[in-house]
């Protein structure tokens, strides 16, 4: 199925530009009963040849396609906690390939020291709270 991109809304019919009309009629040689896919500003549609007038092709809408790029397969990744910033890289790249759920595992062999990091975060959080309270008192 051929696909055409248009920079306008597709209501009931649409007029292809001169270049796309030439491609439709002379290059692709699409037959009158053949469906084409139209990607417009307001969505994806299946269309069919309506008529040709003054070198422009008119296409009527057959149906709207509700498609998403998200896979029907739900992937879950369980991984050991990594040190430094590597966990963020795992999240970044695995999200790109379609992983939808992450389960970090804390095992005997994990090198990263989570308890020390938690203490630092708690300390930083308490300091931040104290700063905010002091700022509110000054106002």
Describe the protein.
With 139 residues, this protein is α/β, with parallel strands linked by helices. The chain has 2 domains: 64 residues, Hypothetical PUA domain-like, domain 1 (Ribosomal Protein L25, Chain P), CATH 2.40.240; 64 residues, no CATH class. It has 3 helices and 7 strands. Strands 1-3-4-5-2 form a 5-stranded mixed β-sheet, covered by helices on one side. The chain starts with a strand and ends with a helix.
Write a concise synopsis of the structure shown.
This protein has 139 residues and is α/β, with parallel strands linked by helices. The chain has two domains: 2-65, Hypothetical PUA domain-like, domain 1 (Ribosomal Protein L25, Chain P, Beta Barrel); 75-138, no CATH class.
